[in-house]
Structure formats: structure tokens, C-alpha cells
Design brief:
Blueprint (H helix, E strand, L loop, with lengths): L7 H4 L12 H15 L11 H8 L3 H13 L3 E4 L5 E4 L2 H14 L4 H22 L2 H12 L6 H19 L2 H13 L4 H7 L2 H16 L3 H32 L2
Antiparallel strand pairs: 1-2
Helix pairs in contact: 2-4, 2-9, 3-4, 6-8, 6-9, 6-11, 6-12, 7-8, 7-11, 8-9, 11-12
Length: about 250
């Protein structure tokens, strides 16, 4: 059985009651799915035990089970029974299928999502350039330097750390929350990303944003971030076209 590693849940303070009461099971499922897409949870990562996870979300164990069942039925997690059982994120192949299914379901909303993401992330980069402290700049640089390995886990977590460090440096809670939400919706799994761009190229894109933030140049920081997002959108479109072509060829 794969070893359990520390995940985002073990690093995040408990926030009981932070989910909307309207449909807490759907909200919990959406949050976990977003953490998988954003890289906070990677392939093979174990979720915390049920009672601990339910307390983290401020929901009942029964409500959590409904959320996990939904994620399991759609292929995001696998659950094993027994004394050493639990739920863990599925492998990269299964997650890629999940990602493609998600994009098909959201096809009519994609343009709006991209427009909103560009507004949020370019403004975040601009604010970071004017508001960052030296320790926050150091954190951004450390995140940039961590993206030097061509492997799935490194790409996901360094990308996640880079954007989180920028959000912290921007000193805007509203922007930070909006950025997390948009990145959870519009994320290209690193397994597909590595087919299109090596880690060195991602490092260069992040470095350009970092340098603008270091020089306290908000306009250049926003422009570099916009270029980075434009490339990401192009890659997403290419991958989707390839996936559609592959699906049609098997009909």
C-alpha cells in the first residue's frame, strides 16, 4: 500500500462551517476536486480519515460520505476498506479522463472563465509588484526555483506554490480567494502540460513574472502574467482538440 504523505489538509487550519449550507456535500466534493486540479492533492495522495476530514469542512460524516461517493463514482478518488483502508486520489491517467469530462461539461462557460481568470491573476501580479515585502519576494523566488524538475509532482506543487506566493504578496484576501477558485476551475494537469512544455520553459515564464515583481513594475508584472495565461489557454485548446480527435477516431 502506498505510504501516506503530508498533504494540504495537514497544513491548513481547521475551518469548521466554511462550506455553504445550501448543498454541503456538493461543495465539499467541489473543493476536493479543485484541490486535485490545482495540485494541492496529487495522484496517490491519501485524504485524511473521515471524521478528521468532516471536522475540517465543518460537516457531518454522513454528508462527507456522500461527497466522497460522488468523487469516487466520477473517477477522482479510489476507496479501500479495512483497517488500513481509506480514500486516495487516483492515478494520472484517471485524472486526465476526469479533466476531459469536466471540460466537456463546462464547454459553454469556458470563455467567461478564462476572461475572469486573466482579470484576477494579472491584477494579483500587479498588486504583488507594488505591495510585496522582502520575505514575500523571497517566497516567490523559492517557488520559482522549485520548478526545475520535469516530473508531475514537482510541476504541480511548484506551480501551486508560485501562485500562492504571489497572492500572499498582493495583500488582498478577495483576490486570493478568487484566484484559488479560478485556478481550481481552469487547470491543465501537469501530465498533459509536460507533453507540451518542459519544466525549463515554465520556469522561464514564472521567472519573468518574478523579475517584474522584484523590480516593482506592476505593468510589466501584469503583462508577463497575461502572456503566461495566454500560453496556458493555447495548450488547453490543443490538448482538447487532440482528445476530441482521438475520441472520434475510436468511434
Amino acid at each position: 500500500m502506498p505510504a501516506r504523505r503530508e498533504t494540504a489538509f495537514s497544513k491548513t487550519p481547521q475551518k469548521a462551517g466554511w462550506l455553504s449550507p445550501t448543498n454541503p456535500s456538493d461543495n465539499a466534493a467541489a473543493l476536493i476536486r479543485g484541490m486535485i486540479f490545482s495540485g494541492a492533492l496529487g495522484p496517490g495522495d491519501w485524504l485524511p480519515p473521515g471524521r478528521e476530514l468532516a471536522a475540517h469542512f465543518g460537516i457531518s460524516v454522513l454528508t462527507l460520505r456522500v461527497a466522497l461517493k460522488s468523487l469516487e463514482s466520477t473517477g477522482y478518488i479510489a476507496t479501500s476498506r479495512g483497517h488500513q483502508g481509506g480514500s486516495r486520489v487516483t492515478d494520472i491517467e484517471a485524472l486526465t479522463r476526469c479533466w476531459l469530462d469536466w471540460w466537456r461539461d463546462k464547454a459553454s462557460e469556458v470563455d467567461d472563465m478564462w476572461a475572469f481568470r486573466e482579470i484576477i491573476e494579472t491584477k494579483t501580479a500587479a498588486f504583488a509588484a507594488t505591495r510585496r515585502t522582502q520575505p514575500e519576494l523571497d517566497a516567490i523566488e523559492a517557488a520559482v526555483r522549485s520548478s526545475s524538475e520535469d516530473d508531475y509532482a514537482s510541476m504541480l506543487r511548484s506551480n501551486d506554490a508560485f501562485h500562492d506566493a504571489l497572492a500572499s504578496a498582493a495583500h488582498s484576501d478577495r483576490l486570493a480567494k478568487a484566484m484559488v477558485a479560478t485556478r481550481q476551475e481552469l487547470f491543465l494537469p501537469a501530465g498533459l502540460l509536460l507533453r507540451k512544455r518542459r519544466a525549463a520553459e515554465l520556469l522561464e515564464a514564472h521567472t519573468q513574472v518574478f523579475e517584474a515583481v522584484r523590480e516593482r513594475d506592476p505593468e510589466r508584472a501584469a503583462e508577463r502574467m497575461s502572456s503566461h495565461l495566454a500560453w496556458t489557454r493555447t495548450v488547453v485548446g490543443t490538448v482538447l482538440e487532440e482528445a476530441r480527435a482521438a475520441a472520434n477516431s475510436h468511434r
